[in-house]
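Appendix C reproduces, verbatim, an entry submitted by the partner laboratory led by Prof. M.T., so that reviewers can inspect both the input and the predicted structure.
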Amino acid sequence: MPMDAIGIAGTSLSTHRKWLDAVSDNLANVNTVTSTEDAAFQARYVTAVANADNQGVSAVGSEWGDAEGRVVHEPDHPLADEQGYVRYPDITLSDQMGSLIMAQRGYQMNTAVVDRAIDIYRAAIQIGTPK
């Protein structure tokens, strides 16, 4: 049985929510510092695919960013090594903000689809209702 508009939009809402969660984690940790001996925070990127029946999408997993990160010279930082270096995640704020905007807009558009579908279903029910 084919999915209705609300069900299809619901799969996309779920996928966009997972994308928003990943981007917010990345943004929250963009300035997380570790020593050069430790791995940097790894950015998370959601992988989405069309469902097998082409009725919606699913988030099937995550890809992880580089654990090497960026090594920055900050000799006054408490986590600096003997040469004065610390490790930051390899996360670009501008890329994450672009992803955040796309994920937000996708989520908003799918909530609009759900709202319109509900309006259409209500109108269809009222067609057969005597006044």
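The CA atoms of residues 48 and 59 lie 4 Å apart. Additional entries are available on request from the coordinating office.
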